[in-house]
Amino acid sequence: MLRLIWLVPALPLAGFVVLAASGGRLDRRSIAWIGAGSVGLAALAAIAVAAAFVAAPPPAGAYTQVLWHWIEAGDFSARASLYLDPLAIVMMLVVAGVGFVIHLYSVEFMRGDEGYNRYFAYMNLFVAAMLLLVLAGDLAFLFVGWEGVGLCSYLLIGFWYRDAVNGAAAQKAFIVTRTGDAAMAVGLFLLFASLGTLDIQGIALRAPGAWAPDAAPVVAATALLLAGAVGKSAQLPLQVWLPDAMAGPTPVSALIHAATMVTAGVYLIARNHVLFALAPAVQYAVAIIGALTLLGAGGAALAQHDIKRVLAWSTVSQIGYMFLALGVGAWAAAIFHFMVHAFFKALLFLAAGVVIQALGGEHDIFRMGGLRRRLPLAFWAFLVGGASLSALPLVTAGYYSKSLILDAAWASPQGGAWLWAAAWVGAALTGLYTFRVVFQVFFGAGATTDTHRVGWPIRIPLAVLMLLSVIGGFVEAPQVAGRLEAFGHFLASALPPLQPAVAPGTGFALGVAEGIASFGGIALAYAFFLRRRSIAALVARSAIAAALHRLLESGWGFDRLDDHLLVRPYLALARRLRADLADPGYDALAAAAAAAHRGLSRSQNGRVRWYAGGIVVGSILLVGAGVWL
Amino acid sequence: MAALPLEQALVLAALLFALGLAGVLVRRNVLYMLMSIEIMLNATALAFVAAGARWAQPDGQVMFVFVLALAAAEVAVGLALLLLLYRRFGTLDADALSELRG
After folding, report:
1. Which single residue of A69, A261, A363, A626 could bond A306 by disulfide (Cβ 3.0 to 4.6 Å)?
2. What are the helix (H) ranges across A200-306?
3. ipTM of the complex
4. What's this model's pTM, rounded to 2 decimal places?
């Protein structure tokens, strides 16, 4: 059964090939069947493989399948191999499962779009690349998937390419993530130069023997890998591309820019946790980046008025939590939060998609309101997703994963009270900005709209994700909710558990504090945005608050900073270099060729005697050269 | 019969060749240019025969037969072209027939 693992990425790839080769000759029904069906079959294959793995774990707790030898040059060898261990299984199931429900949702959501075929072709290619990324057993092969998802992200952000703004957003995402990818590629070269292999397990085996903790090469290699992860996962300072990436269709935002691709950086670090454990300084930097990002992005989410941008910043913030967990060594907690986040963030985006479509493309939350009765399904979906995002204690999945991270930030030797406090404030912010949207969009006085009927391809994904956003967390529970460690035990063979564990008394106190943060945030949102709107209006009128609002809305001004620091100097340099010193030489060469051509073409006058004379002169010259030279 | 000195034969061949070449370059009538080419061909044939006699080898005469055959073929094709040219353009002036130019 495990031998069928190659089918999991191959099926969506086949779907892509069929759709791309059809060139728009298929009718919409077949496109939907092929596009969603290929991913559905991949999800079934993934479930079957995972079931076989759990029923009869292979020896050594992992299964490797070498597809072919990709590059053999000297002592460099890159194998196209798939590596299946508990970490890969979790990632694979989430990518294929969430990918399938979002494809199903797209069947109806994208029905009216003229690029229906193109959309499903890109989406299938994305799922194939993402599955390749999480299953690859070799860093070079992983990089193929890594760049593949980057390409699909670019294609789908710019999906509605006729609007120049979308094209610019796509380019921004591509260029910013490529900055990180270039660093990551250098990191891969460094790893190969030092260890002589890019096989992930080979690296994990050789690294502890080759390098002392904090040795220069391992610090450099992990720092470069971290740069790649920061770019892909939209962490400080490369987070600027993600809010703009919302230019794509909403299901794309749900799948690529919330549930799966942007968490690839988290996966990369977790996958190479042996290396990061050898470089405590870099690992600490991961935690700091995570803490700063979760606070900064939470603040930025608070000031947005585009519903999708709120969700985008909340994604950045939640991935900050995952980075924090990685940084303090709670590898399993990061993957747990990744899984739960994939469920509830996909749900939030899909619900937002229903709202946006019902209002005819309206994104501004201040032009929405009172949609609770008109869009009950979207309301309940958004409420469940929002509650999970705000980590409402005990009843939502988000609570279990987030409190695990907070506990780890407190208890881990690399963590501490400051990191915990940052995460705690972030948790309160999360409740505040999430329920600001909930109260603004679904409560209060409303914009008028007709009741929007949605079909089963939209109902089923929302229902499935609502269920998962609630019960998805009941596999691992912190101290305060009765200790349960099923998820951590499952991952234990791939990711070492956190040492030392939280002390029972502290764990209870932390759990209560986390509950207070979540409730406090929601209560503040209730007070400001529903009950006493006058207070919010009063605060908004003061000059400091207005300036702060502008700063937050622009995402801490990083766009302007990048514009002044990087884009403009680069453009100025390009303009300067347009008239450079080398050009006149080439221009003269071109002019000489043109002049010679004009001169020679005059000699071709059609007179046969002239040609004969030419032959004579040429023969004399040739014979003369032969005789005298 | 006294053997013809090679030098004299070659000088004669060179003179004939130069005459023919001058004819090709100077005459404007295509018919005369064709005749001049015949003279140039015969000049080379003469050089071959003289050289063959000098070294007592049959190759010179073999080449002469080749040149003869070539000249016959050339005249056959050339005269046919000439006829077509005259029918089409009504003149045999080589300078007037300068359609083929870039």
Report:
1. A363
2. 200-210, 216-232, 241-244, 250-254, 264-271, 273-278, 280-302
3. 0.83
4. 0.77
